[in-house]
Amino acid sequence: MDLRTMTQSLVTLAEDNMAFFLSQGPGETARRLSSVFAGVREQALGLEPTLGHLMGVAHLFDLDAETPANGYRSLVHTARCCLGHLLHKSRYVASNRRSIFFRASHNLAELEAYLAALTQLRALAYYAQRLLATNQPGALFFDGDEGLTTDFLREYITLHKGCFYGRCLGFQFTPAIRPFLQTLSIGLVSFGEHYKRNETGLGVAASSLFTSGRFAIDPELRGAEFERITQNLDVQFWKAFWNITEMEVLSSLANIVSTTVRVSRLVSLPPKAFEMPLSTDPKLSVTVSPPLAHTGPGPVLVRLISYELREGQDSEELSSLMKSEGPRSLDLRPRPPQAPRSPSLIIHIHGGGFVAQTSKSHEPYLKTWAQELGVPIVSIDYSLAPEAPFPRALEECFYAYCWAVKHCTLLGSTGERICLAGDSAGGNLCFTVSLRAAAYGVRVPDGIMAAYPATMLQSTASPSRLLSLMDPLLPLSVLCKCVSAYAGGETEDLSDSDQKALGVMGLVQRDTALLLRDLRLSASSWLNSFLELRHKYHPKSVPMAESMRRSVSEAALAQPEDPRGTDPLKSLTLHDLNLRGSTGTSDTSELSLSAETLGPSTPSDVNFLLGPEGAQDEVEAQDELNSKNRVHGISASFPEGFHPRRSSQGPTRMPLYSSPIAKNPFMSPLLAPDSMLQSLPPVHIVACALDPILDDSVMFARRLRNLGKSVTLRVVEDLPHGFLSLASLCQETRQAAALCVERIRLILSPPGPAPPRPV
Questions:
Q1: How many CA atoms lie within 13 A of 411 on its CB side?
Q2: CA distance 246 to 254
Q3: Angle (CA) 368 370 374, round 5°
Q4: How confident is the model at residue 615 (pLDDT cuts 50, 70, 90)?
Q5: Measured between alpha carbons, how far apart are the two ends of the chain, in Å?
Q6: CA-based angle 375:379:385, to the nearest 5?
């Protein structure tokens, strides 16, 4: 269904439903249903021309006709998904509204959530139009005054995001992946409650499990808490949360369901300099020094994974470098004969935003690669930021790459074909390691397979970056914090000095005590939640001051009634949704349909954030003044009468200014000069259409294509960033992972003879 037909159908249904519920008398639910359909009609009509304009020019930003993908297309697709869901829900309401089984409250809550999402998507469409008018022709990233980019980010981060993390979570992705995203979001907000309570590992996970119930049953509370966490918690929180997969219990479960391989061992590379032959003249050599940046010389860990035991992998020289990973189990399987060395070798660099995870987190899909490709894999465990910022990770990856090339026979390979492969941050390091190998004059890999790589680490706006407003795996604030940590802008959290002093047994004893305490508190919390049900029948018994954060539904029960005897929260209309901060006498006019009922926001100490009461008019007046001062300013006002929802959270701890080091081509390969990019081998990129860093892949592939380099770009639909780690989740992720394997197989296949020239 084309956009115009979809919009007209939605408007017709909205008008019909609006008229029906208006005729149902003065009931509160009927009034709100009528109001929400009026809002759907208004937002759909306002959004349709903007989306049509973006689609009319989106093809100008594609890599080629066979690869229709860029941030403008993705934004339009996401808005169409939201319109499609509202269309489906409007049809359902029109067909079932007279039924005695029609759940009015449930459908109202879902319609209000998607109306809020549609309102924010309309704001993003206007932002995309501003980028279109401001950027250079054909460019997806803003390349101009950095102050304009900062102004854009300042305005952008004030938008309300909680509506995308509640009932609407993951609506743009394939339905098969939404239950996983919901589970992840519940775990995230539960984990956030126990962050920085001096708990570790099992203690945090267990405590989060017992306090996650209310987030599962209250989507609005979950969305508000998710927004608070993504905006305000530091990079150490994300480091701790993403490293949950490193826990022995979870990694053991992952190993049970993953492919069984003969070899999966950690190897510790000693920090010793060695010689590498030059690719142009093997008789000459260059010295490869061990990593030195920030922390001085130190060993580099790599994981060797092989489906079969191959020659060289059980040699004494390699065994002397093996690192123990805890107690070894007795392998009673008969020792198989050694397979011959493979002609190929894969050197893998994992993702994790430069701040989290190791090869162990990525081991499940690497084992599958080892089986399907029949090639040994070396995965590099580089040091992580913020403790080891740029260029430490690059130095370690380059050192490990050179060591693997030089000692490939120990790894079960003859090294005839070498592939560099990585995802996300690992894709970035694949490109920069190859650039450094070319700068040293040593052998570059025969090809690079990069899955959803980050090639632009400078803080700049692009249409795909707008998707970070709703992406549950890569919100903009998290992306900026990870990049800032890698650039050296985040300092190491030294609050774990007490944990180091406790020792292993002390940590176990402390976590056990904390776990028992949380069990008691959780039981008490659940009991109190049942006892509080009596407040529904005795409103006067509700205390005025709450010591704990309440859910949206709970807080609504405690709201004082207005003179008409109706709940102010439920009396909100589209006017409250779109014209927040307009004229009104009561504080409830400042509320929107979800997170704001959690309590008043604290005044912001950053001048570009909205305050709880009168600050919005002041900020809007300042924005209007700025737009008058800048003829082509990126922070121009929205069309008259349209106002997106603004965040009610406190000050956002998000770095807005890029460190100058982010422009270093070894950190942002998209900014590398042509002479450096000419040295890259064939590149195969697999990107996600709904990924906030999609434009990184499109622009990097375009630069290589313009230089005449061999490059392919395949874009998978309806999947989030990081699908390789979800390869076993559903059919769509398995197909996307298989596409990555296919790209690697192209690199490892020796080039065939050139076709004969026509006579």
A1: 31
A2: 10
A3: 125
A4: very low
A5: 51
A6: 165
Q: What is the pLDDT of residues 535-583, one digit of tens each?
A: 444 444 434 333 333 333 333 323 333 333 333 333 333 334 343 333 3
Q: What distance in Å separates the CA atoms of residue 243 and residue 598, rounded to the nearest whole number?
A: 30
* 91: amino acid identity, one letter: R
CB 438 within 8 A of CB 381: no
Sign of the C-alpha dihedral, residues 171, 172, 173, 176? positive
DSSP category for residue 718: S
Distance CA 431, CA 427 (A): 7
SS3 700: helix
Q: Which residues are catalytic?
A: 424, 691, 721
Instruction: Between 17 and 207, name the one with better pLDDT.
Output: 17
3-class secondary-structure state, position 53? helix
On whether the CB atoms of residues 230 and 161 are closer than 8 A, the answer is yes
Least confident of 110-124, 288-302, 421-435, 487-501: 487-501
Q: Max Cα separation, the chain?
A: 97
Written as one string, the DSSP assignment of 355-394 is TS--TTTTHHHHHHHHHHH---EEEEE---TTTS-TTHHH
pTM of the model: 0.81
Buried-exposed string 51-74: b where 16+ CB fall within 10 A, e elsewhere? bebbbeebeebbbeeebebbbbbb
Query: How far apart are the C-alpha atoms of 300 and 291, rounded to whole Å?
Result: 8
Cα angle 736-737-739, degrees, rounded to a multiple of 5: 65
**3-class state of residue 348 by DSSP:** strand
Distance CA(76)–CA(549), nearest Å, equals: 36
